[in-house]
Amino acid sequence: MEKFTSLTATACPLPQPNLNTDQILPARFLKWPRSRGLGTALFADLRCDPAGNERADFPLNQPARHGAKILVAGRNFGGGSSREAAVYAIFDHGFRCVIAPSFGDIFAQNASKNGLLTAAVSEADAAELADAVTADPGRNVTIDLETTTIRCGNRTYRFTIDPVGRNQLLNGWDDVDLTESFGARISAYRDADRLRRPWANPAKP
Amino acid sequence: MKEPQTLFDRLWATHEVARQEAGASLLWVDRHYIHEGSFHAFSQMKARGRRVAEPDLTFGFADHYVPTRGNRANGIADPEIANMVRTLESNAAENRITLFGLRDPRQGIVHVVGPEQGLTLPGLLIVCGDSHTSTHGAFGAYAFGIGASEVAHVLMTQTLWQNKPKRMRVSVEGAVTPGVAAKDIALAIIADVGADGAQGHAIEFAGSAVRALSMEGRMTLCNMSIEAGGRCGLIAPDSTTFAYLKGRPYAPKGPDFEAAIEAWSSLRSDPDAAFDLDVTLDAAAVAPIVTWGTSPDDGLPIDARVPDPAREVDERRKKYIEDALAYMGITSGTRLTDIAIDRVFIGSCTNARIEDLRAAAAVLAGRASKVPGLVSPGSMQVKRKAEEEGLDRIFREAGLEWADSGCSMCVGINGDTVPAGERCASTTNRNFRGRQGRGARTHLMSPAMVAAAAISGHLADVRPLLAGRKV
Predict the structure, then answer these.
(1) CB-based contact (8 Å) between B13 and chain A?
(2) Which of B96, B111, B127, B147 could cysteine-pair with B135, CB 3.0–4.6 Å?
(3) At what angle do helices B354-364 and B391-398 cross, to 10 degrees?
(4) Nearest CA in chain A to B85
């Protein structure tokens, strides 16, 4: 997995609340293998009208937002369906960080496992950041995961992320490697648990 | 003295294999349910050259992409969809995983079949790459949805790293009035706490109205936990739970079952246990509810009017209401009962169990639907049971299509979709934009309320339609 330590890039504002994973990646794209790249399907039904034409008023379509690596989103970003492909779509489009007041729990976990930082800030800070990057599309925003800070112009904001996700992103860690180092404890748990909770194993039908 | 524990604390402690300094715990997984969408995870596992650690605790369900109409024995016409189902079949076969596949008489939606087969039991930790896995919490299990990387992790290790959620209790006290279903309670809770009101929390549903629910009703309630943002929903097991489980194929049998009941009986919150968030709801005050907008917390009693953005002081809320009404094609201030519908759908992991079909059929019996509609039972066993009871005849005679089981028109990826611009009264869980198909407009409600909308041709109160009927 790609590491995340710090990032300086332009940002795209998308401040409407409750942008759920059905909006991030409509279900009809879930059949796509990752190798196909899901970036073109990101926000498909918000970006394009039913005839397939790009909506000029959707921020991602604006030339000034091309190359943005940071998404400044609204409250409860990524709620709903557990589809990890929503994270793939954001990542494959080129984003490496989403700043929002809150995230869907499953989405945030999926993001940390795929090199996408979910930086939670207060509602007021999110609104201020969205305003700043709306007013000046060329404005660079710097995210530092070591210090959990965001710098935009002369303002500095603190963000939160769960410590496990932070470690994962900083080190580019894969859970499976970590878990394998616990192999002996897993086996011991399994053996003891079979005696402790015999009913937990499926009966023969 | 030992600190009082919640049901969730007990489940968490039982499954803890190890704990990291950073705060996450490694948890043992008792049941891992997979479906067609698990292909990403199998790819990740294969890329590491690994195999499934515990195939006997892993169960496959063909539900998301399976066709529900036409003869399944003839195979799947759409090559992309056929490939999704075939990939699940080969991944299950290669890894010796039991699969409830397309042609299996037990096939159906994972969150219906797991409980039906007795795979879902109290005290278990259950995961599945599907956010509605919270359904299984109805049995007093810790059950939650995970993403593809976590599915791969569970496949390879049978464990999962998790941060402990906060604890929330939703107590619903008193008795509901006739015509009010578990779905109405769920929609009332979500409207009350908001679509992210339970974010980061494990919800325990408690109170006399919850204890009075059947297992089907409890599953509907826990199913919708995620629509309030909850990590999971759970209900302490009791005699209703045990009676449901007795004799199920994969549940313990004979003396093992008796021993299990003894263990399961301790799965409850201590009376003085503390919750981070406590919400109460008066069951008698819950009316039949429908949603008007594009978020599941947009529920209102059926006798209400849709909101007027002009009356909203909060600018962001005003904008949301305007956008939602524009998408839904509704004028502000309209009476909900004046909203005409184009079709109905009865199905999904939320509301397609036998009790749901009975509730809809009780309203539809001897009446005709004014709009077309689809009824997709939650499993093929539910379908056969409904046919034994003659419910299929009621649906067909009302003019609705009686289909096979699958996720169907709830997520629309098997080809069952609501055409763009059409309005659907639906027993499903999400009224998100485009959820039932691109441009589709969804109103969420209970099965009985969908039936009421069908025979009225518009959103309608089911209560007057129940007069003189046995329900």
Answers:
(1) no
(2) B111
(3) 50
(4) A31
Interface with B, mutate which of A22, A75, A84 (most B CBs under 10 A) = A84
What pLDDT score was predicted for residue A175? 85
CATH number, domain with residue A165: 3.20.19.10
Mean pLDDT for chain A overall: 96
Nearest to B199 among A105, A163, A178 (CB): A105
Tracing tokens 């611009």 back to the chain, one arrives at: B421
* Residues sharing a CB contact under 8 Å with residue B15, sequence separation 6 or more, in sequence order: B27, B28, B29, B30, B125, B142
Domain range for B443 is 289-466
Contacts of A112 in chain B (CB under 8 A): none
Burial class of residue B82 (count of CB atoms within 10 Å of its CB; 0-12, 13-18, 19+):
middle
Residues B38 and B134 in one domain: yes
Q: What is the mean pLDDT of each run of 10 residues along chain B (471 residues)?
A: 91 96 90 97 95 98 96 89 97 98 97 98 98 98 98 98 96 98 98 97 98 98 98 98 98 97 98 97 98 98 97 92 97 97 98 98 98 98 98 98 98 96 98 97 98 98 92 68
Is there a single domain that holds both residue B175 and residue B155?
Answer: no
Q: Examine the domain organization and report whether B311 and B226 are in the same domain.
A: no
B131 lies within 8 A of chain A by CB: yes
Residues B251 and B154 in one domain: yes
CATH of the domain at B62: 3.30.499.10
pLDDT range class, residue A174, cuts 50, 70, 90: confident
What would the mean pLDDT of A164-188 be, rounded to a whole number? 91
Counting the structural domains of chain A, the total is 1
| Angle between the N-to-C axes of helices B447-456 and B354-364, in degrees from 0 to 180, rounded to the nearest 10 | 30
Q: Which of residues 74-93 of B touch A (CB under 8 A)?
A: 80-81, 83-84
Do the domain assignments include residue A179?
Answer: no
Q: Is B401 in the same domain as B457?
A: yes
Are B212 and B107 in the same domain? no
> Chain A closest CA to B374's CA: distance in Å?
20
Measure the CA–CA gap between B241 and B414, rounded to whole angstroms: 33
Supply the ipTM of this predicted assembly: 0.96
Q: Which residues from B are below 8 Å from A185, CB to CB? A: 17-18, 26
* CA–CA–CA angle B415, B419, B423 (5° rounding): 125
Model confidence over A114-135: pLDDT tens digits?
999 999 999 999 999 999 999 9
What domain range is A160 assigned to? 6-172
Shared-domain flag, residues B37 and B14:
yes
Q: For an interface test with A, which of B88, B226, B319 has the most A Cβ atoms less than 10 Å from its Cβ?
A: B226
Q: Are residues B324 and B340 in the same domain?
A: yes
Give the Cα separation of A161 and A98 in Å (integer): 11
